[in-house]
């Protein structure tokens, strides 16, 4: 088991999902200051779906990418600034090049768990600019350990300096995490990380399981702010790791202070495990679909739980929000 873990904090990116990407300048500034004071080593910022993603389809952010990066860079002096990059949303010429100019330190380049091929150019570009780049495999429960390793090796060959697997739907149990993390740790020559969601209440214990199998990077967000039922709660994670004797470099009291600051600055109620979030986890569907599913269910007068399970059967992934309406219509037609 790793005795030291690098914490990466996507509160100001994944947490943006919880408020429909409407975090304002003051919220970004307040949390960046609090996270840096606590010694959080990496803070990830942006639209919930990453750089270049703000749109009518997945939601328009209240701030532009440039505004977000500028305010974060202003208030992060020792903490590294990270962004989430999904090729397709993010272009190299328009988005990545500007992010480099604005001082981003770490580029987390992501794809669906079986589509690592699309990350080649983005990872290579970040590395060519002298920046750190990680590969991120989203919706990782949809691939076997062997397939995840195959995709991770592609990212490693492109120049990725670490691999993070995301439990985007909050579908994992600890044994699922153990099997996948162990396979990656044993099969790669670069660090391995885990990003949990809390749909089934497993995010903290899943993160612990990841570390016990050799993961050295763990994601967590303050108060659990994130899509759907939320992410692994950062301040709980720090406390648990401290109890286990795992070093994070984060000051416990100051991260607890940051949790209070964040609650006031962000203003929404912290994510909870709602009945719909549980169904999302069971169906293996992206947590961020909860709100659009609820809206579609109301519009078409169908059960939102049926929508989630139908999306699961279709292997729906983030970015396929239009499929929610299609499924709702089909269910309504079946009702007659």
From TrEMBL:
InterPro entries the UniProt entry points to: 2-IPM_HCS-like (IPR050073), 4OH_2_O-val_aldolase (IPR017629), Aldolase_TIM (IPR013785), DmpG_comm (IPR012425), DRE_TIM_HOA (IPR035685), PYR_CT (IPR000891)
Q: Where does Mn(2+) bind?
A: 14, 195, 197
Give the E.C. number(s).
4.1.3.39
User: What keywords appear on the UniProt entry?
Assistant: Aromatic hydrocarbons catabolism, Lyase, Manganese, Metal-binding
Segments forming a coiled coil = none
Active-site residues, record numbering mapped to chain = 17 (proton acceptor)
Which Gene3D superfamilies does UniProt cross-reference here?
A: 1.10.8.60, Aldolase class I (3.20.20.70)
Under SUPFAM superfamilies, the record lists:
Aldolase (SSF51569), post-HMGL domain-like (SSF89000)
Question: Site annotated as Transition state stabilizer: where?
Answer: 13
Annotated residues that bind substrate are located at 13-14, 168, 195
The keyword Aminoacyl-tRNA synthetase belongs to this UniProt entry's keyword annotation: no
Any one GO molecular-function label of the UniProt entry: 4-hydroxy-2-oxovalerate aldolase activity
Specify the Pyruvate carboxyltransferase domain's residue ranges.
5-256
**Keyword Manganese tagged:** yes
* Catalytic function, reaction form: (S)-4-hydroxy-2-oxopentanoate = acetaldehyde + pyruvate
Q: Which GO terms describe its biological process?
A: L-leucine biosynthetic process
Which Pfam families does the record associate with it? DmpG_comm, HMGL-like
What NCBIfam families does the record point to?
4OH_2_O_val_ald, PRK08195.1
- Give the protein family: Belongs to the 4-hydroxy-2-oxovalerate aldolase family.
HAMAP family recorded = HOA
Name this polypeptide is given: 4-hydroxy-2-oxovalerate aldolase
Q: Which gene encodes it?
A: dmpG
